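User: Teach me something about this protein's shape.
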Amino acid sequence: MAPKIVPARGMRDVLPADKARREHALRVIREVYRSFGFDEVETPALEELSRLESGQGGENEKMLFKVLRRGLDPDEALKPAEAADLGLRFDLTVPLSRYVATNAAALRTPAKLLQIGPVWRAERPQKGRYRQFVQCDIDIVGEPGAIAEVELVTATHTALQRLGLAGTTLRINDREVLGGLLTGCGFAADDHGSVLITVDKADKIGLDGVMAELRAKGFADELVSALESALGRLLTITDLSSPGALADALPGAVPAAAVARLGEIGAALAVSAPELPVVFDVSLVRGMGYYTGPIFEMALEGSGSSIAGGGRYDNMVGRFSGRDLPACGFSIGFERIADHLRVEADRSRAVALVHSPDVPAGELVRRQREMAAEGYRVALVRQAKRMQPLLDKLVEEGYGGVLRARLDEDGAVSFGEIAPLAAGGA
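Assistant: First, the predicted structure itself:
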């Protein structure tokens, strides 16, 4: 029995019908984001390892695909860290920060940038998780105010609505709130990263699981108990319309400005996107180390996971340029919404031009070219004994019309009228 031929583990092929649906959805996302004033840019798939391993990418830095340096001596014994100098990007934010630092003179401030492309993470493949996947990012660089968060969330919510994805909810928190909370509970600043990695698992392992893991990490029982009490109290607070109640429940180490900022964002979103539920969630962490302020995720009812996420990363650009710029971004995980998409392309403009084998190629391609100039998508389809399976496949690929070409007795080529094409019959 011949071995099954499949893509590399964690990768996948995309068939024509799915590719057409995905590209149509990406066009919708682009149109919405451009209507909000975002300009599309592009960054390389590869970045220098020193930039990708800056300590800001959280657990994703452990899942880098590294690329060996050119010109290595095959007989030279090198450690893996010495043999590689480049890596495939694990997200679009780190490359964008480098891009802004590189091209600062050519960008206006604030810069509103759109970037769509694949990223790579060497994680364990499972349902809905791949080692190569597409992200759709919008970022505002140079705007310190909450208007950046409000615009990013509203634009993303609008794009998802345009795709027919109803029932989204925004969860929001703030890294400064989290930092102040941990400080108020007695955790040392150097331990905040480790604690937050565990707190980020609250939606999967529950509050009891979080506390058990923190104790297993060796944190003192009085610190863990203080955090357990604080989280238990704060998890009951979800409404941002009264930030005073949130402030009263937080330790004094939490900056008042961070709580006020959350209230400002919530109030603004109630005006710009009143149909979008906004929920404060103190357990929301987001794994990236580069976040400095508000962080947010958007969940789709019934999806089981977030479909978009982002936050403020005011110090990231400065790591490359030496001059900090306020920055905030929001990313749609395209693979996570792909299975929920119901957007269909216009089938009426996709036509199968069916022809007998004796119709001259020049006449067929001339007609195809004419129709393409009129805005049609035209597939040349040779007449066969069993046409219906082929026509059914064309319907799956988004074709909605059929046009027949015949060679008359006098040798002239005639084309009929476009007729509807449907599965099970033309």
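Now, about its shape. The chain has a mean pLDDT of 89. The first helix runs from residue 16 to 35. If you'd like, I can walk through any region in more detail.
User: That's plenty for now, thanks!
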